[in-house]
Amino acid sequence: MPSSKADSMNENSKSQRKKNMLALQKLGESLLSLSDSQLAAIELPDKLLAAIQHAKHLTSNEAKRRQLQYIGKIIREIDWPAIQQELEQIQLAHEKDTAKFREIEYWRDQLILENNDIIETFLKEYPHADRKQLRQLIIRAQDDRRMKKNTGGKKMLFRYLSSILSA
Hints:
Elements: H1 5-11, H2 14-32, H3 36-41, H4 46-56, H5 61-76, H6 80-112, H7 116-125, H8 131-147, H9 153-166
């Protein structure tokens, strides 16, 4: 369907160009928040990678703002949809990891509360878990809580639950 004159004017209007520019700056901010290993996973041009690395070392808010504008300008000149897609995949993987971590924390905290129904519920949901080892780890974590000590019981239980939920 051919676009109308109003549509083409709207696409090239100053306000639309500014919105596009700000969206690309936001993309640059998202790239700036990634770790070095996450940045390495994305195929970025050397010029953009150098600009991002430089921005990470800036302390002045004004300097960071100007550098983000520069990053946005670089992004406009390259294939930014591919970069945005890779960034979204990294963010989705991070969200999944966070959700899994929270689920493990939930089970650990519930199991420590000394409720046998929760243990049975866990074992029904994860039948490959070793009941004896699970009970021993729960008892150790509960003892730590009761004695107000930290012998690593909670951490050991967390690691065991992590291995069960990952299997």
